[in-house]
Each structure stands twice: as structure tokens, then as C-alpha cells.
Design a protein that fits this description.
By secondary structure, the protein is α/β, with parallel strands linked by helices. It has nine helices and eight strands. The radius of gyration is 16 Å and the shape is globular.
Length: 224
């Protein structure tokens, strides 16, 4: 039987989306359909205090459109949209998995640390929304990084090698500051391309949005 697609709610961005990025269809081994949330960009999502009614209205309308197009479930292109997990679940016609942060509560027995796009904007409310501890160890990519220039400031180019160096540095910083950490979650949906190098350098398991969405798609497909 032909698989039904997973719908991905995409921020309004212009930056490159290489294989491994949530917004590249080649990152998946199951069907996906994308829908851009016009006018909702990185600054609207990666925020400590976003305009929640505005963002939720866009999430709802575009989730409904994806469901109408045949999506069996809904994911998103930004881990900060964890903030809307419960609200979007209520208004979406199909099940929702908003963020890789959902991994944290499921990794029972693990001391999980998070690498995020922006440590200053990732608040206890984001963790509470996915049932994760508010004191989860977090390291963010630097505000003056190549990563931030591309993904937070919506730049048109990507220096993949430099971003990989920045992600590895963040991972090393995380385990140095929090030596009890024995598993990592990548909040940001642009970070999975760097996961293999991170796992090799740190010697720890790393979980990302692609893992989440693969399991989620299998789960919601099996319910049908």
C-alpha cells in the first residue's frame, strides 16, 4: 500500500537547505509534502516571547491545508515551535510533532543535553511544552557565528564546513560544562547534517528532528 505523506510546516526562509536539513525532501526515506508559512520567518519562531496568536494562526491554517493535501501527520521546520505542541495538536486535523525537543522526555535513563540555535531564546516554557525538565543542560550556537548569519538572519549562503566546526565546538562545550550528559538532542532542524561528525567526535548518541519525524510518521501511518 502506498504510504501517505508527512506534512512539514516550513518557516518563510531563503537560506540553503542541504541534504539532512528538514526542508530537503532527500533527507527522508518516506514521502513528505512541504508548505511555507508566508510571513513567518526565523525571527518569529526563534524568540523567547513570540507573537503567539499570530504564529499559531499560521500554524493552524497551514496544518489544515497540509491535511487537506493528504498529510497523515504534521511536523515543523523549527524546534522552537515546540512552544505550540499542545495548542496545535488541539486545532490540527491530524497528529502533530513540532520539535526534536520531544525526544527529551522519551529518552528515559539518559542525561540529555541540548544544542540549540539560540540559548538566550530557548526558555523553560519551550521545555514545559514538551514535558521536558526546565533545567535541561543547553548550549547555543554563538550569536556571531556563521550558523547564525545563515539560519537566524536568513542569509542566502551557507559555509557548511564552518558551521560544522561551530556545531562540534558547541558539543564539546556542552559536555565539558555538563560532564554527566550522555546523550544530545539537536533542537535546530538545520543541524542534522552535522550529526555524524558530532557523534564521532563526542562518542555520544545524538538525536535530531529526522529521527523524530521518521518514528512519528511510522506511528501515525500504523494507526490508519
Amino acid at each position: 500500500m502506498k504510504q501517505k505523506p508527512l506534512g512539514i510546516l516550513m518557516l518563510d526562509t531563503r537560506f540553503p537547505r542541504i541534504v539532512g536539513d528538514v526542508g530537503n525532501a532527500a533527507s527522508y526515506d518516506f514521502p513528505v509534502i512541504f508548505r511555507k508559512m508566508e510571513g513567518i520567518g526565523p525571527a518569529d519562531a526563534v524568540a523567547a516571547h513570540p507573537d503567539r496568536p499570530r504564529v499559531l494562526a499560521s500554524l493552524k491554517a497551514n496544518a489544515e491545508a497540509l491535511a487537506a493535501d493528504g498529510a497523515v501527520g504534521i511536523g515543523t521546520s523549527c524546534g522552537f515551535l515546540a512552544l505550540y505542541q499542545d495548542e496545535l495538536t488541539v486545532v490540527s486535523p491530524v497528529p502533530v510533532a513540532t520539535s526534536a525537543l520531544l525526544h527529551i522526555n522519551r529518552l528515559q535513563g539518559k542525561n540529555v543535553g541540548v544544542i540549540t540555535a539560540s540559548a538566550k531564546n530557548l526558555t523553560p516554557a519551550h521545555f514545559a511544552a514538551v514535558g521536558a525538565p526546565a533545567d535541561t543542560p543547553v548550549i547555543g550556537l554563538p550569536e556571531d557565528s556563521s550558523f547564525a548569519a545563515t539560519f537566524l538572519r536568513n542569509g542566502p549562503t551557507l559555509d557548511r564546513a564552518q558551521v560544522e566546526r561551530e556545531v562540534v565546538a558547541a558539543g564539546r562545550d556542552l559536555v565539558a560544562r555538563y560532564p554527566g550528559v550522555d546523550a544530545l538532542v539537536l533542537e535546530c532542524t538545520n543541524l542534522p547534517p552535522y550529526r555524524p561528525t558530532l557523534e564521532k567526535v563526542l562518542g555520544l548518541p545524538v538525536f535530531d528532528v529526522l529521527d523524530l519525524l521518521k518514528g512519528f510518521h511510522a506511528e501515525v501511518s500504523a494507526r490508519r
